[in-house]
Specification:
single chain, mainly beta, four-stranded antiparallel sheet
């Protein structure tokens, strides 16, 4: 835990190889996935770690919605973990997608991903969004929001084809994408 002055106040450790994604959750817990088939949480008070839910598939990304549902996954299938720890797959078609990042914003799950399928109409990389049903947590559709592969940022430069490495969404809904492969845009790319 780092305070606003950049000083480390508390540190915790995990028995997992490497957390891939971590989010602050309710009741002083950090929730994380570690490219395994479980969702973990760690108490910021005691440092104790536990398996919060068995996912049935590996996961590398996660985010919470306004009802404290957790969306997580790695490839093809998005898994919903409810606050009562129940787990199920949710709608929305993401077959042949490898997830890079998830962000919940304004009733939608935004999915940064690469696409490895055969549909030529789907870009190789981008950001899609799926509407969240407020009652059930189910997802509907996957509408393309950012066509990274066909944008100026996703074009091959020399032997390098830049890829999305992470995503953030501002309070105003601006999408910020980072690419550690782009020689001219090494930090954030702002797309409104």
């Amino acid at each position: 835990k780092v305070n606003p002055f950049g000083e480390i106040e508390t540190s915790w450790s995990t028995n997992q190889d490497r957390p891939y994604d971590i989010k602050a959750g309710p009741d002083n817990y950090l929730y994380f996935v570690a490219n395994r088939r479980d969702l973990y949480r760690l108490s910021t008070v005691t440092g104790a770690q536990e398996t919060f839910a068995a996912l049935g598939q590996t996961a590398i990304v996660l985010d919470f919605d306004q009802n404290l549902n957790i969306y997580t996954g790695k490839r093809d299938i998005i898994v919903l973990v409810k606050p009562d720890r129940s787990v199920r797959e949710v709608g929305a078609s993401y077959n042949d997608y490898d997830f890079i990042d998830f962000k919940v914003y304004n009733g939608y799950l935004y999915v940064a991903a690469s696409y490895g399928g055969r549909d030529a109409a789907v870009p190789d990389m981008g950001v899609w969004k799926s509407a969240i049903d407020n009652e059930t947590g189910d997802l509907a559709g996957n509408e393309l929001v950012v066509d990274w592969a066909n944008s100026e940022y996703g074009q091959q430069i020399g032997t390098v084809t830049p890829t999305i490495s992470s995503m953030a969404i501002s309070e105003d809904g601006d999408i910020l994408l980072s690419s550690n492969d782009h020689p001219q845009y090494l930090s954030l790319i702002h797309i409104s």
